[in-house]
Each structure stands twice: as C-alpha cells, then as structure tokens.
Amino acid sequence: MKVLRNITRSLAFRIIMPVIALVILAGIGLYIFVLSSVSDFTDRHIKDALMGMSREIYNICDRNLNELLKTGAASDEKAARIKRGLTIGMIEDFMQQNNLKGIIAGKDNEVLLAYGLSPGLLKIVGKNAEHNTVSSLEYDDKKHYAYRMQFEPWDWQIVFIKDAAEYSSLINNVRLAYMATGAILSITALLILFYLNRSIKYPINKIIASLKAGEQPEYEGIYEFEFLSKSISEMTAERQRLMKQIIEEQKLKGIRVLATGVAHNFNNMLVGVLGYASLI
C-alpha cells in the first residue's frame, strides 16, 4: 500500500497519467466524430453503388418494355417472350461486366436466370435479402451485399449480389485510417512525454541530485526552475553562513568559559596563598 502511494505521488506518475488519459479521450473522440463518419461514408458508398446498379438494371427492363409497347407487340405473347428473353440476356451481360451474381424469378418463383450463384448462397439470398434495401449477408466465411428489386410490369423479382471483396480496397483504406490514427496518437503521446520529461522531470531531478549530494544546485535553463535553483542555492549559502557563524560563536563561548574557569581556579589559588602568607 505504501509503495502504491509512493508511486501515485511521484512526479512521473503525475505527468504520465494525464497524458495517457488525454490520449485515450482524444482517441474516443476521434473515433466517434471522425472515424465513425469515415466508416459510415464507406457503407454509404457501397449502398449508393448497389442502388445505382439497381437503377441501371431497372432501366434495362423499362427500356425494353417501352420498345415492346412502341411496336404495339405487347399483346403478342411470342414477341413479348422474345423481348423478355433479350432483356434477361442484357441483364446477364450487365452482371458479368460488373462482377455481380444474381437471380431473376418470375411468376410462382420460376427461375428465369441464376447467374454465378451456388445453391447455398441462393438459399440465403432467398431468406435474407430485403426489398429495395442493401442487405449484408454472410456465406462460407465471406461477406456479400445483396439488393432485391421488383419489376412489376413483368412481375419479376430481381436480386443481385456483390462480393464484399470487390470493395476490399475501400475497406482497407478505412482500416489504414484507423491504424494511422492510432499510430499518430501514440507518437504524439510519446513526444509529449519526452517533452515533459525534458522540461520538468530533468530539471527537478538535477536540483534534487545536487541537494542529496550536499551541493548547491546550479541549474540553468527554464526560468522558473532556474529561479528555484538560485533561491535554493542562496538559502543553502545563507544556511551554511549561519552555521559557520554559530560554530564560531560556540568556539568563542567555549574559550570564554575556559578562560573564566582558569581565572576562577587561579583566583582560588591566589586567595589561599595570600591567606597563608597573612598567617605567617
């Protein structure tokens, strides 16, 4: 308990702990106000990219439907089937160009296109992908982003999936920002501690070392510590002068006491001699 009390009362502890507390608070504040915003930006970027792709897929479907309507062949089942087939092919090409996986389901969940999907991933997508929302899915220790949309004129359910590894560079940049921030905070803390050590602890230790050695401190540098060093030096010199004066006075007092004693003894002897002489 005494050792702990001595540690908590030491100058090093009083210097280091506030710096560490300040760095921790700065890290928490930076995470809340900056890095969390960067992470949110990453998520928004991924979601915006997927929503942009969903609009492009919807435009492919809408454009082909409009072409079919303009030709007046919408009521022709054969022409409509051919146009839907061409649309599915264009969507597949779009998925291939953008490294997407996906599925198109028609009425009664009839699979019209299943591109790049394994049965397991297809099952997870069917259960967890939400309408008009970017969903995050985990499959086979890999993260995927899925978007489900509907093209109502043809009663299609379209789901496309993007492997999170496609955004690895963006995610790595965010992680690098976390690491760089931590490194900057750590280096800053070390520099502050080094500066405080040189500015405060070093002068005090030098003054204390001189006092322990029985010498007058002669620190020069920071004004406040230099003033303290000179004041202690002057007080020490005054103390030594007073001690020397006291010692000299004690010596003189001793001499006076000795002389008084000698005179007293001599006087006693003299009185005895004179008394004896008077008797003769």
Weakly predicted, low-confidence segments:
none
Sheet with the most strands, sense and barrel status: 5 strands, antiparallel
Secondary structure: number of strands: 5
Helix count equals 6
How much beta, percentage-wise? 5-15%
Order of helices and strands: HHHEEHEEEHH
What is the structural class? alpha+beta
Mean pLDDT: 79
Amino-to-carboxy terminus distance = 86 Å
Over the alpha carbons, how many angstroms does the gyration radius reach?
47 Å
Describe the structure in your own words:
By secondary structure, this protein is of the alpha+beta class. The protein is 72% helix and 12% strand. The protein is built from 6 helices and 5 strands. A 5-stranded antiparallel beta sheet has the order 2-1-5-4-3. A hairpin with a 4-residue loop joins strand 4 (142-151) and strand 5 (156-163). Helix 2 packs antiparallel against helix 3 (77-97) and helix 2 packs antiparallel against helix 5 (168-212). The two termini are 86 Å apart. The mean pLDDT is 79.
